[in-house]
Structures are given as C-alpha cells and as structure tokens.
Write a structure and sequence with these properties.
Structural class: alpha/beta
Oligomer: single chain
Radius of gyration: 19 Å
Strand content: 25-35%
Strand order of the largest sheet: 1-2-5-4-3-6
Largest sheet: 6 strands, antiparallel, barrel
Number of helices: 8
Helix content: 10-25%
Order of helices and strands: EEEEEHEHEHEHEEHHEHEH
Length: 276
Amino acid sequence: MIGDRTQLWRPAQVIENRAIARGSVWLTLEAADDLPAGYEPGHVLGLGLPNPDGGYQRHAYTVSRGEPDRRRFSHLYRVIPHGRMTPRLAELQPGDSLSFHGPFHTPVQDEIRPTAAGIILIATGTGIGPIFGYAEKTLREGEPRLIRLYAGFREQADFCLIRELEALGRDYSNFEWQFTVTSPLPEWQGLTGRVTESIPPLFKPEIVETHHFHLVGNGGMVQLVRQVLFRSGAPRDHVSTETYFNHHIEPSESEIAAVAARFRYSPAQHTIERPG
C-alpha cells in the first residue's frame, strides 16, 4: 500500500522542452505510471534527475498548466547558466525521462476568494507561468469576473507567453493583460519600470479594497506589494502569494511608504499597450 504519495518519486517522460524567451523554457511532462496526475497551476512538484554517484539532483518547480485527462503537466522555468539543476533540465529532449514527486502548495484557483469583485494577477519573470495557467483554466471553466494580469520583466527579450495571452484576450472579454519593462527599447510604448513602480497607479482605491490579488515571483516584489496592499486597504484574505526566491526578505518602512504613495489612480496609465 502506498502511504504519502507526495514523497514517492514517480517516473515521467519529457513531451516538450522548448525555449519560449531568452533563458526561459516551457517543459511539458507526462506521468509514466498508473497513479493520478491531476495537477493544477500553482501546485509545486519536485523534479529530480539521477546523479552519477547515486541519489537525485532535485528542485521544486511550480506547475503552469495541468492536463489531467492526458496525465500531463507543464512548468515554465528559467535556465540559470551556472546553476546545478536548470542547465541539466534544459538539455532534456522529448522522450527522455526524469522523476517527480508531490504535489505541494495550493493551486491558484483555490487561493482566489469567491467573494472578491475581480482578480488581479501580478508576477515577475517566470512567475507569469502559473498565473497565465490559472487564467486560462478558470476562464475556460466560465469565470465571469474581470481578470487583469500584469507581469514585469527586465528587458523585452524576456517576454513570455505573448501569443497565449493574446489568444485569451481575443477569446474572453473579461481578461486584460499588460507587461512592464525595467530597461525597455526606445520604441516601447507600454508600462515602464519595476512592478512596484508602474502597476500601483493603475488601481482605484475601490479596486484595492474589493479585488483579490495573487502575487508570484521574487520575494522582494511579493513581500513589498503584499505589505503595501494591506496598508492601502486590501483585506488580508484577498492577498495570496507564491515566492520563488528571497523568501525571507522584509521590506523597510520607507520602501512600503514609497510604494503605497503610488497607489493613486492615473487614467492616462490605464491604456492597454500590447508588446510588439
């Protein structure tokens, strides 16, 4: 009899391992056993590759898309050139094998409060993976509330999932999205700056007070925006998070105050500009 299945290392086969932006890769796996594989965006799975001297090289990755009927699940990950795990992941080809265990963490869909008037999704870097996957899933299932997705990147070469987001925008009138860029090219006409600089002026006070905010990415952004939202009137149960790194960082009082001051709605900034 199997006990805790989250601790059981299970076999999977690589279906796709495709670069979709500079340094960012979309990995689709298919469970190669007979156990359930019903994973959702926001679940976290441990992926493992065997070491030559025994044991596994392992790391946790968040599910971006789940396909339970096909026993498949996808992760968006960033290749760290001198890292121990991601360069090995990036070398995998369709048909190759690796191991996984889990799931851990709570799916995004389970975090979103049904009483919220609307949904705001904010991410940095590859954190866009699970919030895109959540939006795709919940819209297909008939979510009627307006969903706004914002993602921050260092440069335009880092943009991920543009075609997929454009398709959601065409198919669902209650879905909007924007990217913000820290170091844009001269022709860029969209949002400019870090997430904490360009996103706060987009929200009227009643949005902060009534919508659910889900934040994914580096700890600096997640913890800072979380604290700013609380200070700006967001109910505590209407802010959910997932931190990819810098888990224990604490924003200073001056940082919180500076970003909180940016929550001043600016209609001129709310024009939707799509990446070109």
